[in-house]
Amino acid sequence: MAELLIRNGSVFDPSRGINGDVMDVAIRDGRIVESVGSAAKVIDATGKTVMAGGVDVHSHVAGPKVNAGRTMRPEDKLFKSPMASAGNRMEMGFSIPSTFKTGYDYARMGYAFVMEAAMPPLHSAHVHEEIHDTPIIDEAALPVFANNWFVMEYLKRGEIENAAAYTAWILNATKGYGIKAVNPGGTEAWGWGLNCLTLDDQVPFFQITPKEIISGLIKTNEYLGLPHSLHLHQNDLGNPGNFRTTIDSLRLAEGITATNKFGREQVLHSTHLQFHSYGGDNWGNFESKAREVANYVNGQKNITFDLGCVTLDETTTMTADGPFEHHLNSLNHLKWTNVDVEVETAAGVVPYIYSPKIKVCGIQWAIGLELALLCTDLNRCFVTTDHPNAGPFTRYPRIYSWLMSQKYRQATLDSFKHSAKVVDATEIASLDRELSLYEIAQMTRSGPAKALGLGNLYGGLSPGMDGNVVVYDLDPAALPSDPEVLEAAFQRASWFVKTGEIVVKDGEIMGHGNKRTLWVNAKVPENPQVRRDVHDKFLKDYTVGLDTYHVRDYLLPNPYVIEVDMEA
Amino acid sequence: MATITLRSIAQPELCIDCYAISPDAMAGKTAAEIADLDVWEGKIKTPLGDFFEISGTAGATPAETDIVVEGDTSRAKYIGYKMTAGSVTVNGNADMYLGGWMKGGTIHVKGDVDSFCGIQMEGGEILVDGRAQNHVGCSYRGDWRGMRGGIIRIRGDAGNDIGTFMIGGTIVIEGNAFIHVSTHAEGGTVIVKGDVQGRVGGQMVKGDIYVLGAIQHMLPGFKKVETVEREVDGQSYRLDHYVGDLGERHPTSKGQEVYGHLYVPTA
Description:
Radius of gyration of chain A: 22 Å
Helix content of chain B: under 10%
Strand content of chain A: 15-25%
Distance between the termini of chain B: 50 Å
CATH superfamily of the largest domain in chain A: Metal-dependent hydrolases
Oligomer: heterodimer
Helix content of chain A: 25-40%
Largest sheet of chain B: 13 strands, mixed
Structural class of chain A: alpha/beta
Order of helices and strands of chain B: EEHHEEEEEEEEEEEEEEEEEEEE
Distance between the termini of chain A: 35 Å
Shape of chain B: elongated
Largest sheet of chain A: 9 strands, mixed
Shape of chain A: globular
Number of domains of chain A: 2
Number of helices of chain A: 17
């Protein structure tokens, strides 16, 4: 009967509309409860901010492409790997941190759940091995589907039922959480040295278009009733003028209603939207189209998105969007890794420096923040950096500070070499909106938890939910005017309690928690055709056997299975 | 100027990481305080005074501090690490990473140095009277930003991977070198007065290499463009001028394609 009482904090819980009320939060046996006995351990949060543990909807923290980045970039660890503190493991790296640093740094910022955003099904065992090695935080992983040969063949013929049966099989085989789509069709086209930059480009050989893949995957997802929606990385990422393709992709969700029993309302999650809100037709007249994209998204209640904010750091880009990484390498001439994953997907890795001296980087920085500042419903807009693509996740506190302080944004803008040109190409200088702690909690707690169908476990402090509570050394009545102080308070929480266990105190790691891996077990009616197709493809196209494909149970020593039963 | 003298009194079981043997770490400290600075032997932290007897005084600033190291220090790594000013004189040998990431000041080693001497150096001078092992003035593994400035002079021979990813500064090897000189270089100058076996200037984009002895195996990516008279390190030579590496991407500057330059004596 471990009992904890977090007393007298200013609580921000948008899931119940609580906005800074001074109240107690009680935890018994790892869950939030109404009250605890007098013997409970007390954490005094007087004059401090209390929130539920954070939820990250999109981050690349485990698996083969993260490891390819680590292997390719030993210099990412140079001078950034301090000696381990007593009882803890050594922490290494900056943009591609070691698994232990990943767990520790998320915990220090008060995050309870992180979604690994792209799992190649064939290499899912590796993803789960790294997830298992990442302490404290709960994690899940989204297998990638949009360049998968099965999926393209089923969707070309409009066989949603078969696509759903295959999806359910993959979720079970890879211990995956939902449907991720990366550059639909484009990554497969990269196998021919091509790409799909518009929604109507045909995928070579498969004769299907990105439009058909996206629509088909939305239908498949709602047919199954999964906890999360389709999680989409649109076509034409990172190119000037791509906002049209972005809005065209988002339109595919129009008129579709979410079907699920997890409280999710959206049918499409558009990820790292910053990379998809570009105007102009070359790098010279490159400009922000955040207003156009935000206007569209504001009017569509069945869409959620995350920001993918550029943090102006030296980082490592990595994505299953293989052709994009080749394109990026031809721009910066640094190192490049390219991998094909047979039948399923591909990936690329390239280091990148978002320099405040470069105009385009300044505009990208502005677009990420504009998308949040122009958003009318922050419960559908989530903070991410597409870690590590636009910057490392450890910069989230800086993003909060930028969003909360117009003065800080202006100071950053003024520090750019081409600040006048950045101002001309964006709206950032004229946006005086400053977000509140409540709105930050929407974007990092209640919003993403609901979008992932996890609103009953994470993102709030209602009795019965997981006992994930963070205390930041911030007095809402007297927020610091110095953005660095604000940032430091979010970077190193005073206390972080993860499922009832104190894992962080004064920014130091106190314990390794009881990390869980979440996955979705979707039950569908027996489908002999899909079973035969899987059997045949493993004989014909895969270099591995079907009997070695499944992730073994020992890789998920502490699983949390979400059951979805279509027939129930 | 003030001189602080370190005399080696004990040998470590492993190598020791002597980040503390630099004017920046010692300036403004008494001999007793310096003896208390950290030395790492693997993951074990030990006071500097366990390995060295320390005498003399340090100056108030790094620029006013001269360090003299006596005795067997062939297993002392990171001497002069990140130093910005002042001087270090090593009367014996030094282990790896001598003068690594240094920004200013001078280091004189009277014996030999191990690998990674002057890695990612930004300024200052390193003089080694003996030989150097591999990776003189190279970049940190994986990094595309190598030596930026300063001078490294090795009076003896050196091993492989000299000036990898070099951006600026000068490296002089007065003896022979093994293979891989200025690989991936985007600037800087390497002078080898003796012979080099091969792989000189591979994937080089910009910068200068002078090999005043012979190159046993020339890379095919270099093209001879002219013969020049040139003074190199105080002596005049008649040299064949090659440009390359032609297999590599070459940026244009003021309408001209930029190449790496390789000079070898005219036969």
